[in-house]
Amino acid sequence: IHLCMLKKILPSKIYWHCDCGKTEVKEPQKITIIAMRHGESEHNVLGVINGDPKKQFNITKKGISQAKALANKLKNKPIAAIFASQMLRTQETAAPLAKLKHLTVQIDKRLNDIHAGGLEGINILKFRRLTNNINKSVKKSENHKQLAKRVKSFLETLLKRYNGKTVAIVSSEVVLHSMLQISQGKESNENIGGHLKNAEAYEFSIQSPVFCRSCGDTCNMQ
């Protein structure tokens, strides 16, 4: 299923509970997320992995056009805030939308691309093969559980600050995959899910809590 086809629909009266029986929330906080992948960047053209914010790549001319087109598509959305990672490619993609909405792009390192460790700069296909799409760590690269932990932390922050509102987030494909899966109460797994093209966006809702404080990631959203 293409990611753009996925949208979590929540009934008007809903509560969250964990199978452990220790966590239950009535009338939970809820936000709508517009998840946007950055426009085509220089590292995409080179086909290399880049998760180190000290090694920056800009978006290309094509990426700039993509970012402007995406901003125009979203200009009528009631967006309360726009977030991007420390990577310049996400900030440059967010800039046209921020200008249209008269908002400042907020930078959060928890939205950074996958940390590649000693694999930084290698061919992206080789990286995926070596790490089984981040399901294992190689040369201190980040795995799917580590990625999910920081994404959940970010989502909890959003829920506290923007309850009932719509927030736009610009990041990498792997981070947005994880975010969508977490919103569905699933394990973060890069081997599952469709490809998200550059400068594409999809919308979904997420409610609190992101995970059970008692038993962690073993909880099920009902």
How would you describe the overall organization of this protein?
This protein has six helices and seven strands, in the order βββααβαβααβαβ. It has about 220 residues and is an alpha/beta fold. The strands form two sheets. Strands 5-4-6-3-7 form a five-stranded mixed sheet, with helices on both faces. Mean pLDDT is about 85; it is low at about 1-15 and about 220.
C-alpha geometry: globular
Strand order of the largest sheet: 5-4-6-3-7
Radius of gyration: 17 Å
**Spatial gap, N to C terminus:** 22 Å
Contiguous uncertain segments of 5+ residues: 1-16, 218-222
Beta strand %: 15-25%
Mean pLDDT: 86
- Element-level helix/strand string: EEEHHEHEHHEHE
Helix/sheet category: alpha/beta
The biggest sheet, with number of strands, parallel, antiparallel or mixed sense and barrel status, is:
5 strands, mixed
Residue share in helix: 25-40%
Q: Report the total helices.
A: 6
Q: What is the number of E strands?
A: 7
Sum up the structure in keywords:
6 helices; 222 residues; alpha/beta; five-stranded mixed sheet; two-stranded antiparallel sheet
What is the topology?
Blueprint: E1 15-17, E2 24-26, E3 30-37, H1 42-46, H2 61-74, E4 79-84, H3 88-101, E5 105-107, H4 124-131, H5 144-161, E6 166-171, H6 173-183, E7 201-207
Helix pairs in contact: 2-3, 5-6
Kindly summarize this structure in a few lines.
The chain is of the alpha/beta class. The protein is built from six helices and seven strands; from the N terminus they run βββααβαβααβαβ. The protein has helices at residues 42-46, 61-74, 88-101, 124-131, 144-161, 173-183; strands at 15-17, 24-26, 30-37, 79-84, 105-107, 166-171, 201-207.
